[in-house]
What we know:
Structural class: mainly beta
Low-confidence stretches: none
Helix content: under 10%
Number of helices: 1
Oligomer: single chain
Strand content: over 45%
Distance between the termini: 41 Å
Amino acid sequence: MPDFRIAAHCADQLGEVPVWCDRTERLWWVDVNRCALRNLDPASGKVSTLITGGGRLGSIALRNNGGLLLATAEGVDFYDPATGEQTEFTARGLMHARQRFNDGRCDRQGRFWVGSMNDDLTPDGVLYRIDTDGKVTPWIEGIAVSNGIATSPDSRTFYFSDTRRHCVLAYDFDAARGSLSNRRVLAQIAGRPGRPDGSCIDAAGFLWSVEYAGGQVTRYAPDGRVDRMIPLPVSHPTAVCFGGPGLRTLFITSATQSLNAEQLAAQPLAGCVLAFEPGVQGLPEPRFAA
Length: 290
Protein backbone atom coordinates (compact mmCIF):
# COMPACT_ATOMS: atom_id res chain seq x y z
CA MET A 1 0.00 0.00 0.00
CA PRO A 2 1.33 3.51 -0.78
CA ASP A 3 2.38 5.89 1.96
CA PHE A 4 -0.93 7.68 2.50
CA ARG A 5 -1.13 10.80 4.62
CA ILE A 6 -4.03 12.85 5.94
CA ALA A 7 -4.31 16.03 3.90
CA ALA A 8 -7.37 17.19 5.84
CA HIS A 9 -8.81 15.64 8.99
CA CYS A 10 -12.44 16.69 8.70
CA ALA A 11 -14.71 13.61 9.12
CA ASP A 12 -16.94 14.47 6.16
CA GLN A 13 -20.30 12.74 5.89
CA LEU A 14 -20.03 12.77 2.10
CA GLY A 15 -16.82 14.44 1.02
CA GLU A 16 -16.78 14.89 -2.75
CA VAL A 17 -15.32 16.48 -5.89
CA PRO A 18 -11.84 17.68 -4.86
CA VAL A 19 -10.55 20.46 -7.12
CA TRP A 20 -7.04 21.90 -7.04
CA CYS A 21 -6.73 25.63 -7.77
CA ASP A 22 -3.36 26.27 -9.37
CA ARG A 23 -3.72 30.04 -8.89
CA THR A 24 -4.03 29.94 -5.11
CA GLU A 25 -2.47 26.49 -4.51
CA ARG A 26 -5.48 25.42 -2.48
CA LEU A 27 -7.61 22.30 -2.52
CA TRP A 28 -11.40 22.76 -2.65
CA TRP A 29 -14.03 20.09 -2.02
CA VAL A 30 -17.54 19.71 -0.60
CA ASP A 31 -19.34 17.83 2.15
CA VAL A 32 -22.58 17.26 0.26
CA ASN A 33 -25.03 16.65 3.10
CA ARG A 34 -23.75 19.54 5.22
CA CYS A 35 -23.90 22.00 2.28
CA ALA A 36 -20.29 22.68 3.23
CA LEU A 37 -17.65 24.10 0.92
CA ARG A 38 -14.18 23.36 2.27
CA ASN A 39 -10.70 24.45 1.28
CA LEU A 40 -7.25 23.40 2.42
CA ASP A 41 -4.09 25.48 2.50
CA PRO A 42 -1.46 22.73 2.28
CA ALA A 43 1.30 25.10 3.36
CA SER A 44 -0.29 25.63 6.79
CA GLY A 45 -2.59 22.59 6.96
CA LYS A 46 -5.53 24.89 7.76
CA VAL A 47 -8.99 23.79 6.62
CA SER A 48 -11.66 26.48 6.19
CA THR A 49 -15.38 25.77 5.83
CA LEU A 50 -18.10 27.89 4.21
CA ILE A 51 -21.81 27.02 4.30
CA THR A 52 -23.60 27.54 0.99
CA GLY A 53 -27.27 28.01 0.07
CA GLY A 54 -29.50 26.12 -2.33
CA GLY A 55 -29.67 22.79 -0.52
CA ARG A 56 -27.13 20.00 -0.76
CA LEU A 57 -24.00 20.96 -2.65
CA GLY A 58 -23.26 18.33 -5.30
CA SER A 59 -20.21 19.72 -7.10
CA ILE A 60 -18.11 22.79 -7.78
CA ALA A 61 -15.92 24.21 -10.53
CA LEU A 62 -13.30 26.93 -10.71
CA ARG A 63 -14.22 30.03 -12.72
CA ASN A 64 -11.89 31.76 -15.14
CA ASN A 65 -13.13 35.13 -13.87
CA GLY A 66 -12.53 34.16 -10.25
CA GLY A 67 -14.63 32.45 -7.65
CA LEU A 68 -16.51 29.21 -8.06
CA LEU A 69 -19.46 27.61 -9.78
CA LEU A 70 -21.78 25.69 -7.42
CA ALA A 71 -24.17 22.89 -8.46
CA THR A 72 -26.82 22.51 -5.74
CA ALA A 73 -30.23 20.94 -5.24
CA GLU A 74 -31.81 24.06 -6.78
CA GLY A 75 -29.58 24.97 -9.70
CA VAL A 76 -26.18 26.34 -10.66
CA ASP A 77 -24.85 29.49 -8.99
CA PHE A 78 -21.81 31.74 -8.95
CA TYR A 79 -20.03 31.98 -5.61
CA ASP A 80 -17.43 34.38 -4.25
CA PRO A 81 -15.53 32.68 -1.41
CA ALA A 82 -14.04 36.00 -0.29
CA THR A 83 -17.44 37.55 0.48
CA GLY A 84 -19.76 34.54 0.71
CA GLU A 85 -21.96 36.07 -1.99
CA GLN A 86 -23.94 33.44 -3.93
CA THR A 87 -25.68 34.53 -7.14
CA GLU A 88 -28.20 32.53 -9.16
CA PHE A 89 -26.86 31.67 -12.61
CA THR A 90 -28.90 29.01 -14.41
CA ALA A 91 -30.59 25.56 -14.38
CA ARG A 92 -33.57 26.49 -12.21
CA GLY A 93 -36.66 24.29 -12.47
CA LEU A 94 -34.92 21.29 -14.08
CA MET A 95 -35.34 18.87 -11.18
CA HIS A 96 -38.21 17.62 -9.05
CA ALA A 97 -38.19 17.61 -5.23
CA ARG A 98 -36.26 14.33 -4.83
CA GLN A 99 -33.52 15.26 -7.27
CA ARG A 100 -30.32 17.26 -6.90
CA PHE A 101 -27.18 17.89 -8.86
CA ASN A 102 -24.31 15.50 -8.21
CA ASP A 103 -20.88 15.22 -9.86
CA GLY A 104 -19.80 17.98 -12.23
CA ARG A 105 -16.66 19.12 -14.05
CA CYS A 106 -15.63 21.58 -16.75
CA ASP A 107 -14.26 20.49 -20.10
CA ARG A 108 -11.14 22.16 -21.47
CA GLN A 109 -13.27 24.49 -23.58
CA GLY A 110 -14.77 26.03 -20.44
CA ARG A 111 -18.23 24.40 -20.40
CA PHE A 112 -19.62 22.78 -17.24
CA TRP A 113 -20.99 19.23 -17.37
CA VAL A 114 -23.13 18.16 -14.41
CA GLY A 115 -25.50 15.29 -13.72
CA SER A 116 -28.64 15.07 -11.62
CA MET A 117 -29.65 12.15 -9.41
CA ASN A 118 -32.69 10.98 -7.45
CA ASP A 119 -32.44 10.49 -3.70
CA ASP A 120 -34.21 7.12 -3.97
CA LEU A 121 -31.87 6.06 -6.83
CA THR A 122 -34.66 5.97 -9.41
CA PRO A 123 -32.82 6.18 -12.76
CA ASP A 124 -34.32 9.49 -13.88
CA GLY A 125 -31.16 11.60 -13.68
CA VAL A 126 -29.76 13.56 -16.62
CA LEU A 127 -26.28 14.71 -17.62
CA TYR A 128 -26.38 18.34 -18.74
CA ARG A 129 -23.95 20.61 -20.54
CA ILE A 130 -24.02 24.17 -19.26
CA ASP A 131 -22.57 26.86 -21.52
CA THR A 132 -21.09 30.17 -20.42
CA ASP A 133 -24.25 32.03 -21.43
CA GLY A 134 -26.33 29.83 -19.13
CA LYS A 135 -27.81 27.62 -21.85
CA VAL A 136 -28.54 24.13 -20.54
CA THR A 137 -28.48 21.12 -22.89
CA PRO A 138 -29.35 17.54 -21.80
CA TRP A 139 -27.07 14.81 -23.16
CA ILE A 140 -27.51 11.56 -21.26
CA GLU A 141 -30.79 10.46 -19.67
CA GLY A 142 -31.88 7.56 -17.45
CA ILE A 143 -29.02 7.97 -14.96
CA ALA A 144 -29.19 6.52 -11.44
CA VAL A 145 -26.14 8.25 -9.91
CA SER A 146 -24.11 10.58 -12.12
CA ASN A 147 -20.36 10.45 -11.47
CA GLY A 148 -16.87 10.19 -12.92
CA ILE A 149 -16.92 13.10 -15.39
CA ALA A 150 -13.54 13.63 -17.08
CA THR A 151 -12.08 14.40 -20.51
CA SER A 152 -8.91 13.09 -22.12
CA PRO A 153 -5.90 15.42 -22.48
CA ASP A 154 -6.59 15.86 -26.20
CA SER A 155 -10.33 16.47 -25.55
CA ARG A 156 -11.31 13.65 -27.90
CA THR A 157 -12.75 11.29 -25.27
CA PHE A 158 -15.35 12.01 -22.58
CA TYR A 159 -15.61 9.73 -19.56
CA PHE A 160 -18.69 9.22 -17.39
CA SER A 161 -19.83 6.72 -14.76
CA ASP A 162 -23.30 5.72 -13.64
CA THR A 163 -22.32 4.47 -10.20
CA ARG A 164 -25.32 2.23 -9.64
CA ARG A 165 -24.81 0.49 -13.00
CA HIS A 166 -21.23 -0.43 -12.04
CA CYS A 167 -19.70 0.76 -15.29
CA VAL A 168 -17.33 3.41 -16.59
CA LEU A 169 -18.38 4.73 -19.99
CA ALA A 170 -16.43 6.47 -22.74
CA TYR A 171 -17.77 8.66 -25.55
CA ASP A 172 -16.25 10.30 -28.58
CA PHE A 173 -16.13 14.01 -27.72
CA ASP A 174 -16.45 16.77 -30.31
CA ALA A 175 -14.77 19.52 -28.33
CA ALA A 176 -15.70 22.30 -30.74
CA ARG A 177 -19.42 21.46 -30.63
CA GLY A 178 -19.51 20.08 -27.11
CA SER A 179 -21.24 16.90 -28.28
CA LEU A 180 -21.02 13.21 -27.35
CA SER A 181 -21.30 10.16 -29.59
CA ASN A 182 -20.25 6.51 -29.89
CA ARG A 183 -21.09 5.38 -26.35
CA ARG A 184 -19.06 2.39 -25.16
CA VAL A 185 -18.17 0.62 -21.94
CA LEU A 186 -14.61 1.33 -20.85
CA ALA A 187 -14.80 -0.83 -17.72
CA GLN A 188 -17.44 -3.04 -16.10
CA ILE A 189 -16.83 -3.66 -12.39
CA ALA A 190 -20.00 -5.53 -11.47
CA GLY A 191 -17.92 -8.43 -10.15
CA ARG A 192 -16.09 -6.28 -7.62
CA PRO A 193 -17.48 -5.08 -4.26
CA GLY A 194 -17.25 -1.39 -5.09
CA ARG A 195 -18.97 0.96 -7.52
CA PRO A 196 -17.26 3.55 -9.77
CA ASP A 197 -17.46 7.05 -8.31
CA GLY A 198 -15.38 10.17 -8.97
CA SER A 199 -12.49 10.19 -11.41
CA CYS A 200 -9.75 12.32 -12.96
CA ILE A 201 -7.25 12.17 -15.82
CA ASP A 202 -3.47 12.20 -15.56
CA ALA A 203 -1.04 13.76 -18.03
CA ALA A 204 -0.53 10.41 -19.78
CA GLY A 205 -4.26 10.14 -20.50
CA PHE A 206 -5.00 7.41 -17.95
CA LEU A 207 -8.23 7.56 -15.94
CA TRP A 208 -8.14 7.30 -12.14
CA SER A 209 -11.47 6.07 -10.76
CA VAL A 210 -12.28 5.44 -7.10
CA GLU A 211 -14.58 2.58 -6.13
CA TYR A 212 -17.15 3.56 -3.51
CA ALA A 213 -17.71 0.73 -0.99
CA GLY A 214 -14.76 -1.02 -2.65
CA GLY A 215 -11.92 0.73 -0.87
CA GLN A 216 -9.65 1.24 -3.84
CA VAL A 217 -8.69 3.48 -6.74
CA THR A 218 -8.10 1.99 -10.20
CA ARG A 219 -6.00 3.47 -12.99
CA TYR A 220 -7.33 2.63 -16.47
CA ALA A 221 -5.49 2.96 -19.76
CA PRO A 222 -7.40 4.73 -22.56
CA ASP A 223 -8.32 1.31 -24.00
CA GLY A 224 -9.84 0.18 -20.69
CA ARG A 225 -6.92 -1.97 -19.58
CA VAL A 226 -6.41 -1.96 -15.81
CA ASP A 227 -2.97 -0.45 -15.22
CA ARG A 228 -3.04 -0.70 -11.42
CA MET A 229 -5.41 -1.13 -8.50
CA ILE A 230 -4.45 0.60 -5.26
CA PRO A 231 -6.13 -0.40 -1.97
CA LEU A 232 -7.09 2.51 0.28
CA PRO A 233 -7.37 2.77 4.08
CA VAL A 234 -11.04 3.77 3.74
CA SER A 235 -13.86 1.65 2.31
CA HIS A 236 -15.89 4.54 0.84
CA PRO A 237 -13.65 6.80 -1.23
CA THR A 238 -15.66 9.23 -3.34
CA ALA A 239 -13.48 11.22 -5.75
CA VAL A 240 -9.93 12.12 -6.76
CA CYS A 241 -7.90 14.95 -8.24
CA PHE A 242 -4.26 15.83 -8.83
CA GLY A 243 -2.71 18.83 -7.12
CA GLY A 244 0.21 20.05 -5.08
CA PRO A 245 3.67 20.92 -6.45
CA GLY A 246 3.93 19.85 -10.08
CA LEU A 247 0.44 18.29 -9.84
CA ARG A 248 2.06 15.10 -8.55
CA THR A 249 -0.14 14.50 -5.49
CA LEU A 250 -3.36 12.52 -5.74
CA PHE A 251 -6.01 13.80 -3.31
CA ILE A 252 -8.87 11.47 -2.36
CA THR A 253 -12.10 12.47 -0.60
CA SER A 254 -14.14 9.95 1.37
CA ALA A 255 -17.41 9.38 3.22
CA THR A 256 -18.69 8.19 6.59
CA GLN A 257 -22.44 8.24 5.91
CA SER A 258 -22.73 4.52 5.06
CA LEU A 259 -20.65 3.25 7.97
CA ASN A 260 -21.94 1.86 11.26
CA ALA A 261 -20.21 2.41 14.61
CA GLU A 262 -18.08 -0.71 14.29
CA GLN A 263 -16.93 0.22 10.79
CA LEU A 264 -16.15 3.78 11.86
CA ALA A 265 -14.02 2.48 14.71
CA ALA A 266 -12.11 0.26 12.29
CA GLN A 267 -11.60 3.11 9.79
CA PRO A 268 -10.29 6.15 11.65
CA LEU A 269 -9.43 7.87 8.35
CA ALA A 270 -12.97 7.64 6.95
CA GLY A 271 -14.26 11.08 6.02
CA CYS A 272 -10.76 12.52 5.74
CA VAL A 273 -9.06 13.80 2.61
CA LEU A 274 -6.14 11.49 1.90
CA ALA A 275 -3.09 12.14 -0.26
CA PHE A 276 -0.18 10.24 -1.77
CA GLU A 277 2.27 10.51 -4.66
CA PRO A 278 1.43 7.89 -7.33
CA GLY A 279 4.50 8.60 -9.46
CA VAL A 280 2.63 10.30 -12.32
CA GLN A 281 1.64 13.88 -13.05
CA GLY A 282 -1.85 15.32 -13.32
CA LEU A 283 -3.30 18.12 -15.43
CA PRO A 284 -4.52 21.59 -14.42
CA GLU A 285 -8.20 21.63 -13.49
CA PRO A 286 -10.28 23.15 -16.33
CA ARG A 287 -12.16 26.34 -15.47
CA PHE A 288 -15.61 27.60 -16.37
CA ALA A 289 -14.95 30.22 -19.06
CA ALA A 290 -17.02 33.01 -17.50
